[in-house]
Fold:
Amino acid sequence: MAGGDPGPSGFWQTAAGEGVLEGIVVTARPDQRFDVELRLVADWPTPPLHEVSAAIRTAVSEAAEAAGSGERLGDLSISFTDLQEPRSLRDPLGEAG
Structure:
């Protein structure tokens, strides 16, 4: 996975300590649960994106359980906004090649 995408306006982000997690929005619900929306950029080549999404869902669920917060995880939305070539396939100037 290449990383999160904050979107053209930069609003798709969540505070994390003194930093920011780009491409992640967490919304508190009235039922004390939290919905998580992920806006991601995938490395190219990639497995089918539905398989990547399934693996991410499993990883997020397992991480929430391990942190003792599994019951607080609400809906999880995943979208892929772009595909990015790995750096090793780019020229030294960082342009696709």
Notes: The chain has a mean pLDDT of 90. The chain has one domain: 3-87. Helices lie at 49-66. The domain at 3-87 is CATH 3.30.70 (Alpha-Beta Plaits).
